[in-house]
Specification:
This protein has about 140 residues and is of the alpha+beta class. The chain has six helices and four strands. A hairpin with a 5-residue loop joins strand 3 and strand 4.
Length: about 140
């Protein structure tokens, strides 16, 4: 085991997951359901980040926190797009599990023909939720 990894584990630090890790986890879930993998997209990350920031700023979980979803994705000119949001889960694996267990969120994760993805989280320690998540997936 490399020294730095061993030191981090010994001290109880966990590596922070990145958006690329999120895309990999969602791709694995999709592939387990015989669907194509998704690739991380910077423009979709920006849309997701704007939504997560708006929810964190208001302390509320709402698809309209940063404006209507259709208005936020219209500049992307995609024929199909979906959004998952959530809050109160401190790790992506916890958030992803909740999305997988929810019929509507699961349908978005398993959107046929999806190719691109953006995921973001924003902390708000003053909110009871503490962490806000947004995911945007498109064809």
């Amino acid at each position: 085991m490399p020294f730095l990894l061993a030191l981090c584990l010994a001290l109880g630090f966990a590596a922070t997951a990145s958006a690329a890790d999120y895309a990999g986890a969602i791709s694995a879930y999709r592939q387990a359901h015989r669907l194509s993998a998704v690739k991380l997209d910077g423009k979709l990350n920006a849309v997701a980040l704007k939504q997560a920031q708006a929810m964190a700023a208001t302390g509320a979980v709402s698809h309209s926190a940063a404006g209507s979803f259709s208005s936020r994705v219209a500049p992307l000119r995609k024929s199909r797009a979906a959004e998952n949001i959530g809050a109160g889960f401190l790790t992506f694996s916890e958030m992803l599990k909740q999305w997988q267990d929810s019929a509507g969120h699961r349908a978005n994760l398993l959107m046929p023909g999806a190719r691109r993805l953006g995921v973001a989280s924003v902390d708000n320690p003053k909110s009871p939720y503490r962490k806000f998540w947004a995911m945007v997936i498109t064809d």
